[in-house]
Write a structure and sequence with these properties.
The chain is mainly β and 207 residues long. The chain contains four helices and 13 strands.
Length: 207
């Protein structure tokens, strides 16, 4: 699923403090994720190949709510919508008038959107985690424990306790940088945000 796969600072006076994959790193990340039961934000996403050449640049809007609910809308001209109701994931491609629907399985549980909306108690089951602290910025590097994943490495950064950016690196060195703007946490989000109604006449692919 293309949209999920792509699903994703100023000078600081303190020197980096590098941690190891221990319980402290897991506890820090868990605490920061649990702090925001809902998140809404704009995002800017840049995908680069292994040489650093820009492949694609997009913007959009996202919303997440624990447990397992997310909405990821990439703006036109490359518009796509990805919605999870906690059980199923729908990818809507308006250009093709096509919806792809699949079960929210273990592989998708390791995507960035579900890191923000999923069950934080299970993070350490899926990832090896290390952390780095610089002033009010906390960086975490997550490496999947299994090989059947959508990325080889994920870095997630928090500024002032709120999600700030992510970087994904896949097996061929392709990087996807996702910067979040206007982040709002713990505000009410309508349940309808996470329910996608396929337009009449559209093609539906069940996977």
């Amino acid at each position: 699923m293309r949209a999920i796969r792509m699903l994703l600072v100023s000078a600081l006076v303190m020197a980096p403090l590098v941690g190891h994959a221990d319980e402290k790193d897991v506890a820090r990340l868990t605490q920061l994720l649990e702090k925001s039961q809902t998140i809404t934000a704009r995002f800017s996403q840049l995908t680069l190949d292994a040489s650093g050449t820009s492949l694609q640049e997009t913007q959009g809007q996202m919303s997440v709510k624990r447990p397992g609910l997310f909405y990821w809308h990439t703006d036109a001209p490359q518009e796509q919508v990805v919605v999870s109701d906690g059980k199923m994931v729908t990818l809507w491609d308006p250009d093709l008038e096509q919806a792809t629907v699949k079960k929210l399985d273990a592989r998708l549980n390791q995507t960035p959107a579900l890191l923000l909306s999923g069950d934080v108690s299970k993070i350490s089951e899926s990832f090896d985690i290390t952390s780095k602290e610089q002033g009010n910025v906390m960086d975490f590097t997550l490496k999947p424990k299994t090989k059947d994943t959508l990325f080889d490495s994920l870095r997630v950064s928090f500024r002032g306790g709120l999600i700030n950016d992510m970087q994904l690196i896949d097996s061929v060195g392709q990087r996807t940088n996702i910067l979040f703007n206007g982040v709002k946490a713990n505000e009410a989000i309508p349940a309808s945000q996470f329910q996608f109604k396929v337009p009449e006449g559209a093609d539906v692919i069940q996977e």
